[in-house]
TrEMBL record:
PANTHER family: PHOSPHOGLYCOLATE PHOSPHATASE. This is Phosphatase. It holds the Pfam family Hydrolase. GO terms for biological process: DNA repair.
Amino acid sequence: MGKHRAHLVWDWNGTLLDDIGTVIEATNAAFEEIGLPPITLERYRELYCVPIPLFYERLLGRLPTEDEWAVMDGTFHRHYWTRADACGLTAGATELLAAAREFGRTQSLLSLAPHERLVPLVRRHGIEEWFVRVDGRTGHSASGKAEHMVRHLRALDGVPPERVVVIGDAADDAVAAAHVGARAVLYTGGSHSRASLETAGVPVVDTLAEAVAVAEDLIG
């Protein structure tokens, strides 16, 4: 791997995968199960946070009970994964990933989507070859990405944290980057509003092309 160009750690849901519409549909299906009214995209982006139970606390005014959490989590995933195959990549994603080699960048993918679900989707979209590593979540966890990022970077032989830029759509991506001494750029097309992302204290952009350009500037 190169020593001076940026290594990009891409997020999947809401970043490379344009799935926010499907996420809202699945979220509202989960809400319906416990009698909550549907949520709009704008409201979702205003309130969304990780870990997910805290997101539900913002909506309910309290943490969900164990039974409520089990119902909502199960319903969300059932609805989401029946629709995930129909989600496309974000505009320009394929071209940006393919161009990385030409510009001397390396890149990997780290997601909180289950690993066994993530890998087939990445392959189906024909982009696996552009990543030196693809990691999804293993086991059951509602926590954030920080500890997953630690393991991910350890597995990237020869990539120092100071050369890493995480590109994601959630404040948690910035938290995970800071946890390992890396940098982050946040994209507004996914789970958070711009105002919410700006509280993370890292660059916020409206396109993936901007994200890559800013990432190079951060390292350069």
